[in-house]
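step=encode ok
step=design start
structure_in=
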């Protein structure tokens, strides 16, 4: 299934992967993409388990909350939460992110559980293509850390060269 990168959540997924890759390299990008896919699969398994075992309870419960613990372990959690929110909005799911006791949760109407699972599955389906696209962009340039190191080294060289003429000018002025 081809990813529609014209949608907001698809672009956010790509942007997230690109930033991870720029900051830490392609290996970290692949690791983060795998971690995101695993977090989504685990989340969906939890949703499916709760749907299967809580039929009566789910009908009486108006709101459900889903732990975001596995997502918090990934780089740039806030970006991921924003991307998840975009996909949930696209699915028409009323939701919010909440903090409770130092833990983060996704809160949504219990009756929308199938739509929540579908939103996470769509994100998961988008991961391989977004990852490949980010790798392609990264292959054209060097990682952000390497560019930053080069820029710092160049700035230091410029600063050193700029200081030498001053020393000469000061020495010449004293000689006169």
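sequence_out=
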């Amino acid at each position: 299934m081809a990813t529609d990168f014209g949608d907001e959540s698809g672009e956010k997924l790509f942007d997230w992967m690109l930033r991870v890759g720029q900051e830490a390299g392609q290996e970290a990008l692949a690791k983060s993409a795998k971690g995101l896919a695993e977090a989504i699969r685990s989340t969906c398994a939890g949703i499916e388990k709760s749907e299967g075992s809580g039929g009566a309870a789910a009908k009486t419960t108006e709101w459900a909350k889903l732990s975001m613990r596995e997502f918090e372990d990934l780089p740039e959690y806030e970006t991921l939460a924003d991307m998840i929110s975009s996909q949930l909005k696209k699915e028409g799911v009323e939701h919010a992110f909440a903090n409770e006791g130092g833990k983060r949760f996704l809160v949504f109407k219990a009756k929308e559980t199938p739509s929540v699972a579908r939103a996470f599955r769509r994100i998961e389906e988008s991961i391989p293509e977004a990852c490949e696209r980010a790798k392609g962009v990264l292959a054209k340039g060097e990682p952000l850390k390497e560019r930053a190191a080069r820029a710092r080294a160049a700035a230091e060289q410029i600063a050193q060269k700029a200081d030498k003429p001053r020393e000469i000018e000061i020495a010449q002025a004293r000689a006169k």
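step=design ok
step=annotate ok -> The beta strands are 63-67, 95-100, 103-109.
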